[in-house]
Amino acid sequence: MVIANNHLVIMAGGVGSRFWPMSTEELPKQFIDILGVGRTLLQLTFDRFKGLCPSENVWVVTNRKYEALVKEQLPEVPVENILLEPCRRNTAPCIAYVSWRIKAKSSKANVVVSPSDHIVTDIIEFQRVISSCLQFTSETDAIVTLGMKADRPETGYGYIQADLTARSPRNKEIFRVDSFREKPDLQTATEYIRQNNYYWNAGIFLWSVETIVNAFRVYQPTMGKLFESMLPVLGTPKEQEIIDQRYAECENISVDYAIMEKAEEIFVCPANFGWSDLGTWGSLLMKSNKDLYGNCGIGENIRFFDSHNCIVHTMQEKKVVVQGLDGYIVAEKDNTLLICKLSEEQKIKQYSE
After folding, report:
1. Is pLDDT above 70 for 34?
2. For the chain, what is the radius of gyration of the CA atoms?
3. Who has the most CB within 10 Å: 95, 172, 179, 200?
4. Average pLDDT of the residues in 112-140
């Protein structure tokens, strides 16, 4: 595998509304140091791919309004590799755009696509898995997705059903995908865990640029033709103008629906490297260091008394005291304070509106 042919695509256009009030439309969660480690989620994503692909082959697809944030947080990424969506159109158009853009630069590119707002705790194992899968996609016309070992019945994730009898002869860790499953109810999720061939869909994809471009031509011909017609201007000063004019023509559809559920050569690599998609306050609590009573405080001076299983995120306060709460989120930012039961956190989206 030639590392110079490896490209990383970071999708960074989301608004992270379930993390309100910390995450807002002006400053979504991927641009925030959520974990209090001195690096934002976007920067941590970039960091964990170091050594797997040169920084001139890193691409960030984001909404136009976040251009300055990306430039500020990732100065290593060439300015021309920051692709700006004029409107939100889900993951399929985002991936189609960057795929044709990479194709215009390098037809031999081997690509890994990652969301910008996930966390990984075992970086060494993560890099081993990614490297192994990139080797596989460089030699085949396969699409590979990573399946995370499911250790609890999680209703917030989609699932991948693997055919564990159909192991790839080229790579013993990679199996054929039987099906993709939507976010299940608790009973279904519990049934998935009981069987050993269901994995969480991490939304991390690997393929050669030829493979994905061909997949769009076959399974999303309208979108494929749109970007194919733009090929002569991609990478030129006219690119942004034509994207601004025509991007909204794309169907608002996820890559899972658009390509994954239709394509033939789809494989999954089951992996276990301490992954979380940090979609909610609850998932942040699960992944954070907690005290003896299950509390996590992210901020300067947070004190808990008679409190259990709470997450407090108050980066702008000098001192915070929480007494007598069990299973609560307390989050403060820019004159907005949220106090919400963890069990009711799915309502946060509507509170933010």
Report:
1. yes
2. 21
3. 95
4. 95
